[in-house]
Amino acid sequence: MDRLKQKTSLGQTGLKISPLGLGTVKFGRNEGVKYPEGFKIPGEPELADLLSLAQDSGINLLDTAPAYGSSEERLGRLLKRQRKNWVIAGKVGEEFEQGRSHYIFTPDHFETSLHRTLGRLQTDYLDILLIHSDGSDNEILSDGTLIEKMHDFKKRGLVRAIGASTKTAEGGIKTLETLDIVMATYNPLYTEEKPVLDLAAKKNKGVLLKKALASGHLGKLGENPLESALNFAFSHPATNAVIIGTINPQHLAENIRAASKALEQGKKA
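Request: output the structure for the sequence above.
Response:
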């Protein structure tokens, strides 16, 4: 697991992150999610143990969002007196209320949302803030008032790095033109956003991968689907970190082992 404990630079942001990050949607939401099986949201003692396992294994990157139900509030309680040990990525744009998502892309809402997130997390800054796209990437990222607001957050010291979690190659490329980081989807079953990663490598911009494990739908990848998916994810030179979402300690340990193996193989290649 030594390779996993070696931190990598997130593009030009100055942030040092673990190559594996822990997504926390399952910390606070089990409605309207696209996983193959249902699940029960764990209690906070179980989540504390999961975070300890992650930290002991070298993981320092956490991904959360207002749309992840009670994830932000729970992390705020769980990370008390530990804030400096973690790089936290948050989001603006998507809300989840009464079992349904809706989106608000205005500068005023971004301001309100960020301050609410800071309050829930019991912190005075976020390391990373991403626009949580609804799929209309080009429209969102062409709104100069939103981009200006994101840069304003940086200038005010409320966030250290800014970006977008996009859903299209066009949106990812547009993100790289105006912001620091893109969160893109890339796995053996979906490669349409590879041009985003290619451009990020050229520009030395930050790349976080989501759905690298295809949200649990990896059955088509043969005998060792987990290893195949993580080998694929880390084989691209632009990949700074892969976000994996789990609340199962055994699954987390398996992900850690597979990621470490993939990183070692990449080092030898």
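DSSP finds eleven helices and twelve strands in the chain.
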